[in-house]
Design brief:
single chain; 264 residues; alpha/beta; Rossmann fold; seven-stranded parallel β-sheet; binds nicotinamide-adenine-dinucleotide; EC 1.3.1.9; SDR_fam; oxidoreductase; NAD; enoyl-[acyl-carrier-protein] reductase (NADH) activity
């Protein structure tokens, strides 16, 4: 535990349960002294999110469906009313119809393409439009992406296209907001078994493949993503913006199956 985030107030978006990547990040920030607010997607999640928030000393939980502009406005109005300002934001949200996270990318439907881009890409920009106004002393934002943005991964399909657009939006946001001392970065996380990940076809196989072939010969934990997020969100990362930081046990540097990898 450190004092790195002492006096800093941050919003965590995308907590669904204690397997969520958002949970690993929230724990790391709280452990370093941050004060946290949590947004959750809908009423069904409140019973999970509220006790998790309480366990980190937060009673600030607020609903927000990022597909709804009014819902985003209400969330940020509440942050302004309670805190008056914001120091950091974590966007750990993505969505596609899981029927299109298998089979061929070429078969993506227009409705799911638009929805995936709206929820998984545009929502981060919509969040930063609002966060900018509250980050009067500068700030730091982190979103979550995946290697399927850079290379074709089985079944990732429309989410790969969405993550590529998300990573590009991180660079444009970093430029627009940098003059105001607001840093914008992404973490490209290795595979972690979460609710969202279980919607991806053959996810267990992809996990095993990463375990056998990453330089560290293992997958990563939410706690490890949390520690890297803490670096980007805190003063440790003060000169880092527009970056996509791979927290993936090194998987992204590998070009071929490891010679010692067992068959799956
Ligand atoms: P998760 O299911 O725990 O979290 C996904 C969150 O997105 C949930 O809290 C869900 O409520 C939220 N969400 C979906 N649609 C929403 C909407 N319309 N409004 C508000 N919230 C909405 O899964 P996770 O794996 O922790 O996912 C977090 C992020 O990490 C996602 O962007 C995901 O793509 C990314 N990621 C995950 C992995 C992995 O292997 N799990 C790897 C790399 C990147």
């Amino acid at each position: 535990s450190t004092n790195l985030m002492h006096g800093k107030r941050g919003l965590i978006m995308g907590l669904a349960n204690d397997k969520s990547i958002a949970w690993g990040i929230a724990k790391a920030c709280a452990d370093a002294g941050a004060e946290l607010a949590f947004s959750y997607q809908g009423d069904a999640l409140l019973k999970r999110v509220k006790p998790l928030a309480e366990s980190l000393g937060s009673d600030f939980v607020h609903p927000c469906d990022v597909g709804d502009e009014a819902s985003l406005d209400a969330l940020f109005a509440e942050i302004e009313a309670r805190w008056g300002k914001l120091d950091f934001v974590v966007h750990a949200i993505g969505f596609s119809d899981k029927s299109e996270l298998r089979g061929r990318y070429v078969d993506t439907s227009p409705a799911n393409f638009r929805m995936s881009m709206d929820i998984s890409v545009y929502s981060f920009t919509a969040v930063m439009q609002r966060a900018e106004k509250l980050m009067s002393d500068g700030g730091s934002a982190v979103t979550l992406t995946y290697y399927g943005a850079e290379k074709v991964m089985p079944h990732y399909n429309v989410m790969g296209v969405a993550k590529a657009a998300l990573e590009a939006s991180v660079r444009y946001l970093a430029e627009d907001l940098g003059k105001d001392g607001i840093r914008v970065n992404a973490i490209s996380a290795g595979t972690i078994k979460t609710l969202a990940a279980s919607g991806i076809g053959d996810f267990r196989y992809i996990m095993k493949w990463n375990e056998y072939n990453s330089p560290l010969r293992r997958t990563v934990t939410q706690e490890e993503v949390g520690k890297s997020a803490l670096y980007l969100l805190s003063d440790l990362g003060s000169a880092v913006t527009g970056e996509v930081l791979h927290v993936d046990a090194g998987y992204h540097v590998v070009g071929m199956k490891a010679p010692d990898a067992p068959d799956i």
